Amino acid sequence: MTTVEEGPDGATAEGSRWLDARPAGAAEARDLTAAYLAGQGARVPEPVRDDVLLVVSELVTNALRHAGGAHGLRVAVRPAGVEVTVQDGSARRPVERGHGGEWLPGGYGWPMVCRLAEVAVVPLGPDGKLVRATVPVRQG
Predict the structure, then answer these.
(1) Other C-beta atoms within 10 Å of 23: how many?
(2) Which of 41, 79, 115, 130 is 20 to 30 Å from the Cα of 49, by its Cα?
């Protein structure tokens, strides 16, 4: 079931609002994030928005495939960038999968997220972990 919360209770210290959701899949997470970012206007340039949508897609997909599901998604526009946080059901840290120079399917999302964003993993013990990725707003 998808739940979305965005409102006055979602106000940050910077005065912006955030998106809280529990998406059923990556496509739904991207759609919810795109709608939220569209409401932010010029605060999020198009190239940054595209990077954020890719990060959301990869983090939610990884949570679904490897970590017991996406238990929550939060997206917030901050002064330094767009912060994406995904809570999943596994305490295991994400790992970069090596391919030894061969072209094999899978294993490319996590390295891409780490290139596009500043990433932090916050363990929650038996409740899994938070993966927080901040995509910087590049100054033109």
Answers:
(1) 23
(2) 130
State the DSSP H helix or E strand holding residue 24, giving kind and residue range, or none if neither: none
Summarize the confidence of residues 46-65 as an average pLDDT. 95
pLDDT per residue as tens digits for the range 59-118:
999 999 988 889 999 999 999 899 999 999 999 888 666 656 666 556 668 899 999 999
- E-strand ranges in the chain read 4-5, 18-21, 70-77, 81-88, 118-123, 129-136
Distance (Å) of CA 84 to CA 4, 98, 102, 135: 15, 25, 31, 8
- All residues at 6 or more sequence positions from 83 whose CB lies less than 8 Å from its CB, including other chains: 74, 75, 76, 77, 132, 133, 134
Q: Is residue 20 left, alpha or beta, with left meaning phi > 0 and alpha meaning psi from -120 to 50?
A: beta
Distance CA 24, CA 113 (A): 20
Compute φ and ψ for 82, nearest 5 degrees.
-100, 120
58 neighbors 73 (Cβ within 8 angstroms): no
pTM: 0.83
